[in-house]
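Why does residue order matter? Because the sequence determines the fold. Keep that principle in mind as you read this record.
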Amino acid sequence: MPKVIDLFCGAGGLSYGFEEAGFDVVAGCDIEARFGETFEANHKNAKFIHAPVAHLKGGALLQQTGMEPGELDVLVGGPPCQAYSVYNHQRGMDDPRSELFEDYLKIVGELQPAWLVMENVTGILSIEKGALIDRIKGAIRALGYADVDHYVLKAEEYGVPQERRRVVFIANRLGLPVIKPKPTRSTPNFVTVWDAIGDLPAIHPDQNPTEGVKYACEPMNDFQAWARGKLDAVTNHRSPRLGPANQERLRHIPEGGHGAISRSTFFQKE
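Structure:
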């Protein structure tokens, strides 16, 4: 099986996709130690390395995973995106977090994986009026990856019940063409929120069951069957605490609405 290492791995979501596709996830690295337990639960045979990627050494990483230079098939990573997010109004290259993609590429140079996959938010497209994209691709080519490209991928086109855009860089040093992943869904066949969670039982504000709660019905579609797996109850199915005023505000939102309530209701105090 082709081997994968995930940098900035978090709970292991990006590498989980590779595992679902038949790859062997051997390790993940993140600065947050609390992510390790979830990462290793998602990837039973993988090793979690608690360290800032900036302090990581390729040689040590190979030693910990029992590989030789050039043996790794894919290095994936999603450097934290706050520096490039459109919600960060001071975003740009002056933010220290913007250097994290350079830390990722340093490890690429030391490990020399056959393929690399790096993802980030779409805000990265407008940094330096687009020059940052060219700089990243130039740095990747300088490491020996002549075949490199980037794409804006839409999560809903690949079966995710969410509108999410991500810029994904893909490159290889094998002389193979880089091809944009072909979408698996299109309107009107997107997976909707109802498709995803329509089988969950209703709960009331402040209702926080300590044990699993039975599903409201049998799986209504393939997504629900996949999401629950072999479970017959929902765990961590909790409602946030809502005071009387917030409950009243929610009651005034019509079905399918999104905040269209009177000012007097909206501004009433607890």
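Confidence is low (pLDDT under 50) at residues 84-89.
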